[in-house]
Design brief:
7-stranded antiparallel beta sheet; 198 residues; homodimer; mainly beta; 38% strand; 3-stranded antiparallel beta sheet
Chain lengths: 198, 198
């Protein structure tokens, strides 16, 4: 396949992707905000999340800030901020913060170094745990410890899991398409003896 | 937090997750099928996908089959097979294939060693490229080369990206909740000079 159709197909082939904004601040105080669709759950105890950084071509403000300061935030994108969130992906110069250009509010909570996104309803503060180089295509996996989870109890179910409908969290496919969701089913933990007779 | 509420919260904190079934076959011909919510796009050229395996406690048929044979399939879960897909997560003995127990059809295409899921509308055949141990919590990242993408053209948009609504692809949050989606927005590639004035 040609390069562009191949990129479009492979970028969408994994299915729905989570829509998050990663907030950072440089050592000199410049804030940065960038959209990522590759955040993945690594484990709950310790609570670890990972995401994938593309190859270091040109400036990578998010990665530099994380490596230099050790802290970052992951903030759910909701339907009210989807357009602003999308356009954080433009290649703005370092001195122009995406918070300012895209009119999103840097919010400092619990004395945490990195800025949260004020308009986000689910905000996670992380400390850098490890970076793993993925040599096969020169990407990097960034692993962080969850230090803070900031959300209203209205967005949690009785088992403490997140109600992503209540928090108006959206998802992405490919590089440009955004979705809201509706619940179709919940099933019990699968135990061999209790699996339905299909 | 207590262990169970913590597990519930952290498993759902990344947002919507892709819902995929991974199909494998052992060297002796036993098929295996398992649900995964951690598939992530690593790059398009070469086309590489990754997913996370939990720690090797007890038997891990999927990982053993991938390591022993070098091949696996990733198949989108749609609303028609969501219940069957969920219950592949029960801890069935090796001799009982989840394909058979959960009444999903192993499908062999293009001479590929690993079975696809007949009922899935988007099927990907991969060859093992690399496994990366994530020492911090004893998980493993499995990286595969995309060898085949099997789908009807009816599930592709004009730019060749997938139309996840047309393919009835669903998403997951946490460990037990499944969603269908509706599109809310598509935005152009973000170029600094064309970013809207928010």
């Amino acid at each position: 396949m040609e390069m562009l159709p191949r990129l479009s197909l492979i970028n969408s082939i994994t299915g729905f992707k989570p829509a998050n904004l990663i907030g950072t601040k440089s050592e000199s105080g410049d804030t940065n905000l960038a959209i990522f669709s590759s955040v993945v759950h690594l484990g709950s105890d310790p609570a670890l999340l990972a995401f994938i950084m593309r190859p270091m071509v040109g400036e990578r403000h998010t990665l530099e800030n994380i490596l230099n300061t050790g802290y970052y935030t992951i903030n759910h994108i909701n339907s009210q901020i989807v357009e602003k969130a999308h356009f954080t992906s433009a290649d703005f110069p370092r001195a122009l913060s995406e918070f300012e250009r895209c009119k999103l509010t840097p919010e400092y909570l619990h004395g945490f170094y990195a800025p949260f996104v004020g308009e986000s309803k689910v905000k996670i503060g992380l400390s850098l745990a490890e970076t793993i180089p993925i040599k096969i295509n020169n990407t990097t996996m960034i692993i962080g410890h969850v230090e803070h989870v900031v959300l209203s109890g209205a967005y949690q179910k009785s088992d403490q899991s997140l109600d992503l409908i209540a928090s108006d969290t959206i998802s992405i496919s490919g590089l440009d398409t955004y979705y809201r969701s509706e619940k179709i089913a919940t099933f019990p933990y699968a135990i061999v003896g209790d699996v339905p007779k299909f």
